[in-house]
Amino acid sequence: MHLTRLIISFVLLTFGSIVALPLLASGTISNATLPAAKPGTVKLFVNRVGSGKAMDVRNDTDVPVEVVLRLTHMVNVTGVGKGLVRKTVPARTRMRVATLRKRQPGYPLMYQHSFSYSLIYSPEPGKKGSVGGYAYALPWKGGPFSISQGAGGDYSHTSPKGRYAIDIAMPEGTPIVAARAGTVLKARDGQHGRMPNPAGNYVRILHDDGTHSAYLHLRRGSVKVKAGQQVKVGSLLGQSGNTGRSTGPHLHFVVQKAYGDSMLSIPFRFSQPVSTLPNFASNN
284 with 9: CB under 8 angstroms? Predict the structure, then answer.
């Protein structure tokens, strides 16, 4: 897995389905900034335009995405070459990626299509797709360690609350430290295995801008902080473990903000680079 192309794929096989999406006055959609909407979604819309079809992508995430549109079994279709379209859609925009036209008027336009997308995201400063904001210190001591599942990882980083999380493979007992100063909101220390909480033992910290950082799958009995405690960058929180829904010893680190009654994962960056391993959590 390449860090700047952490892939999350949602493949939709449809047969010429039409979903209404308001068009701009010119009949095209390009780099239009979107209002706030349900976070963390990328959707393909198919609109009727004259006798053809227009395909638009709406990106409601906070990072750019590369979309891949494949058309097969095309009959009387022109405008998409051999049927493979790749486009980069900026964060929080809607954009037209393809327009299908009839080769011969009066005959039906037929095709099948599949749609997938990849987050263009890196938590490392200076790389394409990097995000701004606070630069988090590495939340562990020792190493070096590597990312085993990144943002949009296909095993478990697909939900709005975990989309931009990262997993760092490391031995159990590795010291886990605060990546940013704040106040401990919650800490769990008594879980032994996978159940009952999929997060296992964890620490959640509130920061001065209202965001949270969370450190999951910690070793039982290792957590050193309590709710209400102030921590500084580098303060010892506990030790890495393998509790909760974990495929092996690692630290799950995520930055979130409140969204209604739930928490929404948001992009972040580290203050220094972290290397990447193959995605060992892949379902493939």
Answer: no
DSSP-derived secondary structure for 201-265? EEEEEE-TTS-EEEEEEEPTT-----TT-EE-TT-EEEEBB--SS-SSSEEEEEEEEEETTEEEE
First to last CA, the chain: 13
CATH class given for the domain over 42-119: mainly beta
Contact 136, 205 (CB under 8 A): no
Residue 122 pairs in a beta bridge with 130
Q: What is the DSSP letter of 137?
A: P
Degrees (nearest 5) of the Cα angle 254, 256, 257?
A: 175
Give every CB contact of residue 86 below 8 A, 6+ residues apart in sequence: 66, 67, 68, 69
Give the model confidence (pLDDT) of 14-34 as tens digits.
322 323 333 322 223 333 444
- Is residue 112 within 8 Å of 103, Cβ to Cβ? no
Q: What does pTM read for this prediction?
A: 0.58
- What is the assigned CATH class of domain 146-265? mainly beta
Task: Give the separation between CA 123 and CA 131, rounded to whole angstroms.
Answer: 7
Average pLDDT, the chain: 78
From the number of C-beta atoms within 10 Å of its C-beta (0-12, 13-18, 19+), residue 223 rates as buried
Among 22, 270, 28, CA closest to 166: 270
Domain boundaries, the chain: 42-119, 146-265
Q: Can you tell me whether residue 175 is helix, strand or coil?
A: strand
151-165: pLDDT as tens digits: 655 556 667 777 788
Tokens of 6: 């952490």
